[in-house]
Amino acid sequence: MVLAQLGGSISRAIQQMNNATIIDEKVLNDCLNEITRALLQADVQFTLVRNMQTNIKKIVDFDALAAGHNKRNIIKQAILKELCKILDPGKPSFAPKKGKTSVVMFVGLQGSGKTTTCTKYAYFHQKKGWKPALVCADTFRAGAFDQLKQNATKAKIPFYGSYTESDPVSIAVEGVERFKKENCDLIIVDTSGRHMQEAALFEEMRQVYEATKPDLVIFVMDSSIGQAAFDQAKAFKQSVAVGAVIVTKMDGHAKGGGALSAVAATKSPVIFMGTGEHMDEFEVFDVEPFVNRLLGMGGGDWSGFVERIQEVVPKDQQLEKLSQGNFTFRTLYEQFQTLLKMGPMSQVLSMLPGFSQELMPEGREKESQAKIKRYMTMMDSMTNQELDSSNLKMMNESRLMRIARGCGRPLRDVMELLEEYKRLAKIWGKMKGMKIPKKGEMSALSRNMNA
Ligand code: GDP
């Protein structure tokens, strides 16, 4: 199942429909036939695809739709809704209950982010008042226990592991027993990953599974593996009863198409996604925003935004800085300049995470522009040192007062600018290391979809 291709084929079909002068039944049928072909090629079950087609046709009833209706939008929304249904396996995964002991086993290949995700999962629940505990049953990778111990200590989560015991099964059993006695309600067992799917790994995993009898097995998958996701997920599912999937590294460049494959292969829902290396960069997974992203329909679509920026800013000036993640006040200043040049604002900004709703609510472009100009005036009163530093500690009270005096604005306006900078720096920081695609490499599609 080739997910990136699937997303691309479906988007192309929608784009063709979009380009048609008149939207009639033939155009809709052509579009649906293309989508059907793509889904079948991607091994989606025939009945699912057929149901999807029937449902969309029911929603888009040409006889019932009055002339003024935006048929393109109605069709797009119907397709989106039906695709979401495919991603939703229909049955929710086992849900541990607070106060009642559950054992959750994590499986996945080495490097997928399994150990990091174990801690994130524990921390997520701990913040909600659970009593989680971590057991390191990875005796294969040197340093695995140290890593888990370090993460667990940071988050103040009890952990269990051994430097000397080489049998993962006995460690897992001992750890689980111990934390059951301590009344932990979420006992998380991290298993070993290795580089490849090999018989020994699966056998070991199966043994740990049988010995600890987990209530839930979570398959952790790196979102960038793309095409390999389906086979990988299936192989794990055949060895142990995978009940849920967590997709990691969704902050990277990959659109995370592999998640759909994993759902199809394991018939299990994606429950969370990892969005960074830090403990709290972990989000509950929602189907609809994900499908939006897969098809390039959503806000926050970098490729559309990057392409647009390349149209107005001299090459490598702006983009280099963004990809280095070196977000200073000067970067912000230059971005504001670019944005003012780019117009029409709302269209550009809808593509830009962080800017769209908070800074620039739709329909209030004039106010938004005024706000940006105000921010820029305040930054005009900053020294070069302040503009080029991303160290907020340096912005002490006397500096803020000086900036406020310099631009003739109240201190609270400068504080507001500081808050805005902090919020955007966090979002832009996530672009660190991102490969900047060359012009033409990106889907022109997202622009059409956003239009
Ligand atoms: P394991 O071998 O599967 O246990 O993988 P690790 O937990 O050691 O993670 C491998 C690498 O991926 C580490 O450098 C992690 O910091 C990183 N990582 C894990 N999850 C994420 C994520 O959601 N986003 C990013 N950017 N990095 C992640």
UniProtKB/TrEMBL annotation:
Ranges of residues in domain SRP54-type proteins GTP-binding? 269-282
Arranged from A to Z, the UniProt key words for this protein are: Cytoplasm, Endoplasmic reticulum, GTP-binding, Hydrolase, Nucleotide-binding, Ribonucleoprotein, RNA-binding, Signal recognition particle
Q: Which GO terms describe its molecular function?
A: 7S RNA binding; endoplasmic reticulum signal peptide binding; GTP binding; GTPase activity
Q: Which domain of life is it from?
A: Eukaryota
Question: Which reactions appear under catalytic activity for this entry?
Answer: GTP + H2O = GDP + phosphate + H(+)
Report the locations given in the UniProt record: Cytoplasm; Endoplasmic reticulum
GO biological process, any: SRP-dependent cotranslational protein targeting to membrane, translocation
Question: Which family, according to UniProt?
Answer: Belongs to the GTP-binding SRP family. SRP54 subfamily.
Functional description taken from the UniProt entry: Component of the signal recognition particle (SRP) complex, a ribonucleoprotein complex that mediates the cotranslational targeting of secretory and membrane proteins to the endoplasmic reticulum (ER). As part of the SRP complex, associates with the SRP receptor (SR) component SRPRA to target secretory proteins to the endoplasmic reticulum membrane. Binds to the signal sequence of presecretory proteins when they emerge from the ribosomes. Displays basal GTPase activity, and stimulates reciprocal GTPase activation of the SR subunit SRPRA.
> Could you give the domain comment from the record?
The NG domain, also named G domain, is a special guanosine triphosphatase (GTPase) domain, which binds GTP and forms a guanosine 5'-triphosphate (GTP)-dependent complex with a homologous NG domain in the SRP receptor subunit SRPRA. The two NG domains undergo cooperative rearrangements upon their assembly, which culminate in the reciprocal activation of the GTPase activity of one another. SRP receptor compaction upon binding with cargo-loaded SRP and GTPase rearrangement drive SRP-mediated cotranslational protein translocation into the ER.
Query: By its UniProt entry, which HAMAP family does this protein fall under?
Result: SRP54 (MF_00306)
Q: How does it assemble?
A: Component of a signal recognition particle (SRP) complex that consists of a 7SL RNA molecule of 300 nucleotides and six protein subunits: SRP72, SRP68, SRP54, SRP19, SRP14 and SRP9.
What is the official name of this protein in its record? Signal recognition particle 54 kDa protein
State the organism named in the record.
Erythranthe guttata (Yellow monkey flower)
